[in-house]
Amino acid sequence: MKMLFKQRMFSWFDSYDIYDEYGNTMFVVKGQLSWGHCLRIFDAAGCPVGCVKEKIFTWMPKFELYTGEDNYVGCLSRELTLFRPSYHIDCNGWRIEGSFWEWDYDILAPSRHTVAHIAKELWNWTDTYTIEVADSRDALCALMVVLAIDAEKCSRYNHT
């Protein structure tokens, strides 16, 4: 299954549209006013299906992942490294491996098979990613991981 993650160009808060490989809307992500990032995820019908919330007052950036309104499924946190960002994920036993430039990375299951491959498209006006998910049941959790990493990168680059 392939998803296209596209940030909206003119929005006050973070807003994203996620399309399937045929151009149909799968999810809509809307940022809301809060301390830290808070990204609410809605399905194509407008029903809430998930949320990514940044924990504030932590040493390194940390994002909690929820399905539905408040069903905690895990968290993603940035690890302290010298040259390239590294992330620890506490969700489904997954781990993340990525490139030096943070444009391409994989979400791997404990069995080392690829759950999702994420690739940033470079020549777009807004952040645009292709997310290839091996099992469509993992699409929402994979999307939440991508949202958390993108929010962490936005915070890091806006504060330097």
From TrEMBL:
One Pfam family here: LOR
SUPFAM superfamilies, per database record: Tubby C-terminal domain-like
Family label: Belongs to the LOR family.
Source superkingdom: Bacteria
Protein name: Uncharacterized protein YxjI
